[in-house]
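This section describes the prediction task in plain terms. A model, or a person checking by hand, is given the sequence of a single protein chain and must write out its three-dimensional structure as a string of tokens. No templates, partner chains or ligands are provided. The sample shown here is typical of the held-out split.
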Amino acid sequence: MNMDIVTSVTALRERLQREPNNVFVPTMGNLHEGHIDLIRIGKPKAACTVVSIFVNRLQFGPKEDFERYPRTFQNDCEKLRSAGVDVVFAPDEKEIYPEPQTFAVEPSDLQHILDGEFRPGHFRGVATVVLKLFNMVMPHAAIFGKKDYQQYLVLRDMVRQFALPVEIIPAETVRAADGLALSSRNGYLSQAERAEAPRLYALLRDARDKIANGERNFQRIELEAMALLAQNGWVPQYVTVRGRADLQAPEAQGRELVVLAAAYLGKTRLIDNVEVTL
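The expected answer:
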């Protein structure tokens, strides 16, 4: 199958002019089965499937792994070709940011809680680059994984509030056989850390089961999970039960909840979540 690789916005727009519509999967490369699943979900939704590969400096904090983030372009392209992708957009920084990005998308207060509290500026960087990419690709639908639950909500709300003509389609988290959510950052784990890593999902499932069985002391669930992580060598940042719609504390009448967690295992920060309906 013919897959076009374009590196400039001009070439991208020329190539997409021939298409009646397109579905878009933005990535930072270093692709795994979770990304391929997003493509599988997207493909039936449009004539043309576009995947971008761009490591976005704006969403990395000063002490985060921008320089060290794995760049595996040839390998990524082989996977995308096998998955039946039509267009790969692989710009460099100059193409996306030809001048310093002084205009930015300022997300709602959602950007300051949970991941936003520990990664200030992260969601501003994500929302700004995604808006730019939407303006370049002009997709009618875009697929985002629910593993990054807060990111999915920020982008869903951005699209709604700016009346962008893009349908945001969430995709369920893809997991390894032992339950670990697939992530590019899993490659940083040592062998011993990789064996320990599934504990995060096990704890989230345990919390979900307690809630489903009637436990309503969410704080106890959260503290117990945090303590268990710490006992097993993790450095937890949060385990928390929130309302699914806005990630605020669950309201008495709210039935759609999500349990979210972020924790360091060694030097690697892992995030995960599970949904639960009362």
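For orientation: The radius of gyration is 19 Å.
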